[in-house]
């Protein structure tokens, strides 16, 4: 058990809908990262937050947004969903900034029908 | 644009043999990561390499970074079946991070 909790584990929704994925980092970790993994595009870094502030931004679509709350949990919001958004979404956390080992959650499998 | 190339993409090894996975990248970076992913599972961080010449070892795996050559290697020593997994490298540059396509390693008895 990595100590990183992601909910829900599975999500099935329809095109055009909006969903929220949640991530609780390991106790004491200040950084949260979001990644997307799909067969088409492989692994992609989406975004990183450090202690509530956006620190790094990767291939995150404008339809997607994220935030990190004062209690350090994070949410990834995906809107106007398309079939191509079907993927595994992983959250990871680390103690400080991006130079540290990251601990990954089990992932949320999103299926857009 | 930062590009990351891993090779080989598929690697079948016999137990006890040594082999190296290569990770080349296109722009300067001083942070490189190696991850492992078992089938149907999440990712596991293996190494973070932060400077030129950095070398880290854990068990039968050793990773190194040459920032001048824009190359990292993951060396497997005396492979065992438990090392069968997909290995990814990822490179950080300019507040972005890009992954290689992954190397699917199969270790056969």
How would you explain this protein's 3D organization?
- The complex is a heterodimer of chains A (113) and B (109).
- By secondary structure, chain A is mainly beta.
- Chain A is 0% helix and 53% strand.
- Chain A is built from no helices and 11 strands.
- In chain A, the strands form 2 sheets. In chain A, strands 2, 4, 5, 6, 9, 10 and 11 form a 7-stranded mixed beta sheet that branches. A 4-stranded antiparallel beta sheet of chain A has the order 1-3-8-7, with no helix packed on it.
- The radius of gyration of chain A is 13 Å and the shape is globular.
- Helix content of chain B is 0%, strand content 60%.
- With 109 residues, chain B is mainly β.
- Chain B is built from no helices and 11 strands.
- Chain B is globular and about 40 Å long.
- Chain B has strands at 4-7, 10-14, 19-25, 31-37, 43-49, 55-58, 61-66, 71-76, 85-93, 96-99, 103-108.
- Classes of the chains: A mainly beta (113), B mainly beta (109).
- At the A-B interface, β5, β6 and β10 of A face β5, β9 and β10 of B.
